[in-house]
Amino acid sequence: MYTLLFKQELFFTIVPGFILFFVSLYIVRILSWRYLHLRDVPGPTGAAFGRFWLVRALASGSSAVKYLEVNKQYGPLARIGPNHLITSDPQTARRLLAVHSKYTRGPWYDCLRIDPERSTLVTERDTRKHNVLRHQMAPGYGGKGIADLELNVDARLREWISIIDRDWASRPGETKRFDIGRSIQYLTMDVISHLSFGEPLGFVKNQKDMHDFLKILESRLPVVEQFSVLTEFTSVLTRVSQIAFLKKWIIPSAKDKTGLGRILGISKNVVDRRVKEGIATKNDMLGSFLQHGVDKDQVESEITVSLFAGSDTTATAIRATLLHIITNPSVHSRLQSEIDLAWRRGRISDIVQTKEAVHELLYLQACIKEGLRIFPPITALRERVTPPQGDIINGHHIPGGVNVGLNMRGVLLNEVFGSDPEVFRPERWLESAPEDLQQMEKVQDLVFGHGFTRCLGISIAAMNLNKALVEVCIYDPKIKKVQSADRV
User: Fold this and answer.
1) SS3 at position 46
2) Could you read off the pLDDT of 377-387 as tens digits, one per residue?
3) For 112, 157, 258, 365, which has the most beta carbons within 10 A of its beta carbon?
4) Which residues are CB-neighbours of 12 under 8 A, at least 6 positions away?
5) pTM recorded for the entire structure
């Protein structure tokens, strides 16, 4: 009996010890791997052992500033997580995004899916599938085949200016407060919806957030950003959404009355009607997608994504550029003078046309380039994964399967822009030597992406930027009427 008790006591003493030993060994091994496989890349303390730094950066609400600071402190390549790097080097960014790059889109993109079971052009990680979609959708996003493209944009601008003058312009003895930032977002939503569906959603006309689309989008964005780091939650959400009775509580539905679901519903109704009438009934973005073979269900998701992705980035670009112009008196004065002179000489139309702006308003073009450079519309990491064989980045050997994020704001503050890259100075685009200007433009162009992930809607975004900024500078229609008598 004594021997039996002794053996039992020995068993309950030694076995837990062995279990604790092997668990500890496993934890040490994991932590060692996390630290050792990227040990040569500098970064914040603790970043090698957990994603706390990334989570805190996103939770701060100023992640772009955090990314800029980390690259300034640790160099153009920094470690910000156990398997996460960030680069502010333009050449590295270009190589990651190149057409024949061996890098692929990382799990970061999964968090942007409206439906976890369906990818869109923005979220598709399979390179072959992405390129097929891109080929089908390029004509629509590029504006090719869209009837009266510029006339439709002009119509939205006229409505916007008219409503501002009617409802928001201050009069003698009456000062009105006008949130131009929000109103610009209403404008871009109506422009994109008009080009997508053939008619605006009515944000400008009603001067409100239709269907609470922006409200719900903005409230969910911080959560989505965290999912881009804590990718396990995205995986769990994908699995849970496959359970029928839970799906309706997680995934936006075309039957919803507000938010993304409501826009999905509008997209579905328009697509269904268009298919019933005949695919080629309208020459708009939706019609272009259908004509080029994009699946009906795919089109519903793509149109919804184009509404919030296209409108938000364009609105951000307009607002940021406008803010830098009006807070720099010398810049504002010079731009106003350029527009006034072109107007009086009859070189620009009532609503400036894109070709006119490009050829006659050179300082405006410099302001737009500088605005996009100093405040890029997209500052999210958009991580790429290193190829299986690994790669050499800034002298460091990086193994395969590592997430490399793009610090776009850091890229656009590169020394190629001179000794004052953090200063908003449009003149740099007009004064630089040809060889310097070429290098500047090569780097600045990365704001639109590169290779097969380069933005397809550049021409439409540029059109909106040129027109909106000119209209704001000639903010009062009465001024145009007075000046029109002086036109040469």
Assistant:
1) coil
2) 999 999 999 99
3) 157
4) none
5) 0.89
